Amino acid sequence: MEIGGEIAAAGVNERKKPWAVFIEQPENHQRSVQALVSLDNIAIATSGNYRNYYIRDGKKYAHTISPYTGYPVQHNLLSVSVFARDCATADGYATAFMVLGLQKALDIVAAREELEAYFVYSDENGKLRTKATPGVKDIIIE
Q1: Any idea what DSSP says for residue 40?
Q2: What span, in angstroms and rounded, lies between the C-alpha atoms of 127 and 136?
Q3: What is the pTM of this model?
Q4: Does residue 94 contact residue 81 with C-beta atoms inside 8 Å?
Q5: CB crowding 58-72: b at 16 or more within 10 Å, else e
Q6: Could you write out the DSSP letters of every residue in 10-35?
Q7: Do 118 and 136 meet the contact criterion of CB atoms below 8 Å apart?
Q8: Cα separation, 12 vs 17, whole angstroms
Q9: Any long-range contacts for 17-20 (C-beta under 8 Å, 24+ apart)?
Q10: For position 4, what pLDDT does the model report?
Q11: Which one, of 82, 128, 78, lies nearest residue 108 by Cα?
């Protein structure tokens, strides 16, 4: 079942294998695959700041608004995919992580054994980088 960025998978596909879905690469509005993941009775939710934004005076303003400041978040996290038992949990954390940024999100995932996450961010040179929690290695196909 897919609900606009959230997918819950149960059972196996017609080839008797876990469901496979891709995480989109957040680059220049082009649709390309960042990672392919296997969903075996788990949910995934992806949130990102790479589609809904505008640039004004050379500064990017994304659609994720910080409840702390009331302004768009300003950090290098472009996308986060959260794996959890259900879509509501995965979606809530994915959205929160987009507000909090990479390091705070990593700290929260490390404290919650029921969560795994895959992050796409830009380094200080603007190059795309990824970071995954330890359990994601069992989920990523390629």
Answers
A1: S
A2: 22
A3: 0.86
A4: yes
A5: eeebbebeeeeeeeb
A6: -S--TTSS-EEEEEEP-BTTB--EEE
A7: yes
A8: 5
A9: 20/141
A10: 60
A11: 82
Please say if the pLDDT value at position 28 is more than 70. no
State whether CATH 3.30.70.120 applies to domain 6-138. Answer: no
Phi-psi region of 16 (alpha: psi -120 to 50; beta: other; left: phi over 0): left
Residues 54, 32 contacting (CB under 8 angstroms) = no
pLDDT of res. 85:
94
**Average pLDDT for 9-17:** 89
Is residue 64 within 8 Å of residue 83, measured between CB atoms?
no
Q: For 67-101, what is each residue's pLDDT tens digit?
A: 888 888 888 899 999 999 999 999 999 999 999 99
- Listed by start position, the domains of the chain span 6-138
